[in-house]
């Protein structure tokens, strides 16, 4: 027909069936190439985004814990001196509601009258250690819990937050009190906000979250902060100085730290902590299967063949106040 129309001088335009089929096949190949390119680009974007998220979440988690640990043992003008209730220390009547009381004879939020050192630091591995904090619920098994007590600097002249505990301190005397416009009278004292934190990991649905309990006047240790999502495990190794040079000679897991070591009753002194954090992506990536083993100090955590990316971040924190008890 097209040839007949051309013979009669009629201009014909368009494609034949064969030409149309060839064009369609070429188009399909081009579309498949574009789809593959876009799919690869999307995968790369997901991978890059998740690795950036892992790095950032790990950095934030370490920064939060490191800030507390670096100031561990700081008790204002009483730093390095033990609190002896009734001798050099006074506390508010009634104690702390909903308290988190750790192992040892003197390991609550405030010092007690037991003839034992007041613990500024304590920890355990959930589901593994024999001791635990009864105030915590649903702590993920196989993760470390860390309890820290210290004063927050700089000193203040207006301790007027009614929700916070403070300490009026001189080199020889300490008075724990509830913040109010009329602090206790203690000659030459400076006033510091008192802080008791407990760090641990518990799930929010199926997402592991680094959490923190914080001391307040009305709720005691019942205040829970969700700090960073995707923190799947935390491991703490405790560094002890055995020869008096203020440098850690060995790092050990919490199971090897004895009561005498917690209370600084031996020559060994706690001078550093090594923190390992295993960070997990918040969302799964079905294009990825994780069969990696992750080393957290002295232990290895194996992935379960799931679709979550993970990353280990770590730091070593040298204590600025290594001599907790003189």
Automatic annotation (TrEMBL):
The chain crosses the membrane at residues 12-38. Pfam families: N_methyl (PF07963), PilW (PF16074). Keywords: Membrane, Transmembrane, Transmembrane helix. GO terms for biological process: type IV pilus assembly. The keyword ATP-binding does not apply. The keyword Transmembrane helix applies. It comes from the Bacteria. This is Type IV pilus assembly protein PilW.
